[in-house]
Design goal:
This protein is an all-alpha fold. Helix content is 56%, strand content 0%. Keywords: Disulfide bond.
Length: 87
């Protein structure tokens, strides 16, 4: 007769892997946030701005990226569409 596991012997939980096709399908499908960003016409500028912040953790070090995003935002007419104001 073997020893029964004690209550202190916790087995780690393991997530079952998802089929690769299902994971790829989810990744390829843009979510609502992506759709909104793409509709502005400034998705590339937005990505560069968020990447800069992710790397530097300080918006003050991303002034060039912010300026490019703002210029794109205005050139696409988003300032009128969203009724944003210059400060």
């Amino acid at each position: 007769m073997g020893a029964e596991p004690s209550k202190d012997d916790k087995q780690p939980t393991v997530e079952q892997p998802r089929p690769a096709a299902a994971a790829e399908e989810e990744e390829d499908e843009p979510d609502e946030w992506d759709k909104r960003i793409f509709s502005t016409g400034c998705a590339e500028e937005n990505a560069k701005l968020t990447d800069c912040y992710y790397e530097k953790k300080d918006w003050r070090q991303c002034k060039e990226e912010m300026e490019r995003f703002k210029q794109c935002w205005k050139s696409q007419g988003n300032d009128k569409r969203t009724d944003s104001k210059d400060v």
